[in-house]
Write a structure and sequence with these properties.
four-stranded mixed sheet, 14 helices, elongated, D-Maltodextrin-Binding Protein, domain 2, about 400 residues, mainly alpha
């Protein structure tokens, strides 16, 4: 069980990097920047405006919601002068045999949209000359409609929002592990160089000290994940407001979210314990190559992403029950496939057992690694420490 001393260390480690005023300011600043970017994108969206296009009198083209095609009675040179003088038109079209020229003042994003309208017009015009009906033209552009029907009723589908939710979960886990990576490496190596830990051994055991560090930094990682999720949610709301779309959360499966929390917590604790063991063996983080080994904890997200399009396949099933990857794979699988209740429960039990084992391994390596100065232990020594029984 977690001792009271470990909880004290956990609280100290968590509050050590948690300055709520500074972080609240930074989050508000991030939201402000995002809102500014979204507002700028909205107000500079040229596709929402209407443009007047001057065309020759014999140019038969239908108006669209974005483009109004007008046929002025003045000649081409007068049209150019008028466009430069009072912005009567946004562009002027001329046609010579099989070539259409667009005359405008300067480069604009909406010009590519105008080109698509013109191409669609001439596609229909060519079809009429060939005697093709509108239905025949549509058949040429889309010769067949392809649909996929899944016999497995547990599969929720391959399209958004299920897949986007799954990818969002992987991103949040990546944020959490990146946070705990920085905190564990910084706190342990700094204390080792300053020989702070040796003094603390007099009042608590190495296992208690490591447990407290892992818990404290894991809570910091969860805090980063929750705030990142909040930012994603607020960003979605902001985009919906500017896009004038109805904001709907009916696609979000809250039962999966409830399962995600224990998987995320245990997964972060598992990875933090591994990172703590590696960090304790590092003498100088600026020159050591062992810090790169801590990034192995990102592989579960990478492996899961590679098989995200086959959530019911053997690879995802293997990752979902394998304790070192289940914290990333099982929530993703639950998002995209309906599974029996015992599957996530069994996966969670196996994950908890692995966390308990990794916690003990981290304590053993921490005990010896923090007392070794001037050189780094070999991987053989680290493995021998991990397999030993001495933790205090």
């Amino acid at each position: 069980m977690i001792s009271r001393q470990s909880l004290v260390v956990a609280r100290w480690e968590f509050l050590r990097f948690f300055k709520w005023k500074q972080q609240l300011t930074s989050y508000l600043l991030m939201l402000g920047i995002f809102a500014a970017v979204a507002s700028w994108s909205y107000f500079t969206d040229e596709s929402r405006q209407q443009y007047r296009i001057a065309v020759p009198a014999d140019f038969a083209i239908e108006n669209t919601e974005q483009f109004q095609f007008q046929r002025p009675s003045i000649d081409f040179s007068a049209q150019l002068e008028q466009m430069q003088a009072d912005d009567s038109w946004h562009a002027i079209l001329t046609k010579q045999e099989d070539k259409v020229s667009i005359h405008t003042l300067t480069g604009k994003k909406w010009l590519s949209q105008l080109e698509q309208v013109l191409l669609q017009h001439y596609r229909k015009d060519t079809a009429n000359k060939l005697g093709l009906t509108a239905e025949q033209l549509l058949q040429l552009e889309q010769p067949i409609s392809i649909e996929t029907e899944f016999l497995d009723q547990s599969y929720k589908g391959k399209d958004a929002p299920e897949k986007m939710v799954a990818i969002g979960m992987l991103i949040l886990l990546f944020v959490g592990l990146t946070t705990v990576f920085g905190y564990m490496l910084t706190s342990i190596t700094a204390e080792k160089q300053q020989r702070v830990t040796e003094q603390l051994y007099a009042i608590l055991t190495p296992q208690q000290w490591m447990d407290g560090k892992v818990l404290g930094h894991s809570f910091s990682a969860l805090k980063s994940m929750l705030t990142s999720a909040l930012i994603m949610l607020v960003s979605t709301i902001v985009i919906s407001v500017f896009a004038k779309d109805k904001f709907d959360l009916s696609w979000l499966d809250f039962s999966v979210i409830l399962w995600l929390l224990p998987f995320a917590l245990l997964g972060v604790v598992l990875c933090a314990s591994f990172m703590g063991a590696i960090a304790a063996s590092i003498d100088d983080p600026n020159t050591s190559g062992k810090s790169a080994v801590m990034m192995l904890t990102w592989l579960p997200m990478v492996f899961t992403f590679f098989v995200i399009d086959s959530p019911a396949g053997w690879a995802m099933t293997l990752l979902s029950f394998f304790p070192l990857t289940s914290f990333a794979a099982m929530p993703v699988k639950m998002t995209m496939v309906d599974i029996s209740w015992w599957q996530p429960l069994l996966s969670l039990v196996l994950l908890f057992a692995s966390v308990w084992w990794m916690r003990r391994v981290a304590g053993r390596v921490f005990l010896r690694g923090m007392q070794l100065y001037g050189k780094e232990p070999s991987w053989t020594e680290i493995v021998r420490w991990a397999l030993s029984n001495k933790t205090d």
